[in-house]
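Hello forum,

I keep getting stuck at the same step: I have a sequence, I want structure tokens, and every attempt I make locally crashes halfway through. Rather than fight my setup again tonight, could one of you with a working pipeline run this one for me? It's a single chain of 259 residues.
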Amino acid sequence: MGHLDHAAYGWLTPALSYVMASIGAALGLRCTVRALATTGASRRNWLLTAASAIGTGIWTMHFVAMLGFEVTGTEIHYDVPLTILSLLVAVLVVGAGVFAVGYGKERGRSLVLGGLTTGLGVASMHYLGMAALRLHGEVSYDPLTVGLSVAIAVIAATAALWAALNIKSPVAVAVASLVMGAAVSSMHYTGMMAVAVSVSPSDAALPGATAMQFIFPLAVGLGSYLFITAAFVALSPTIDERAASASARHPGEHTVPAH
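Reply #2:
Ran it on my machine without issues. Output:
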């Protein structure tokens, strides 16, 4: 069995991955709050942004954490198509959960359906990303720990969607995002605790790309997307702010004429 190091760079990758998960959650929750306050195309667009933010944040969190993953006795490469597929799965399945909440008629049922769908999407992304690993040896998993990681993913996703439905203030959303980031990180490292690698030393070249060749530049690009989108959402006025601005410009429009 190869020795597994989940934090080869110390606290750098766990801390940075937590930050990325929290930013994605904060942006996604804020966009969902905006979506629920609108209708039509505007609601759809806000929900699409929420799905891309949460999905991208979770994917970036996973692979930033994987930058610190090493196995004694073998190099690690990543299958490029499978890795990209894991990103698409994260965005699409999280999108299904967000849209279930955004357009659901019964909030309770929508929350359960959305939380289950989104949580399973998070877990699918994680294990699809792990399936992209290419190394000299065999990867195996402890089923009970895998089940625990999936349960954490579902609970975390349900809690995040509940927050989107019930929490409106920016401060409360920020706190919920930090909790969500911690939950997603816990899911990741719980899933990694399920991993065992039986190393078969070899001089043969591994297929795929190294983390620094592929994962690092992609994670930097997606992280930049999250920061830029977060700045856009932060600077974009809410409906209440637009209404207040309109009232300030036309103070007499909403006054009741005296009889």
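The longest helix spans residues 40-66. If your local run keeps crashing, start a new thread with the error log.
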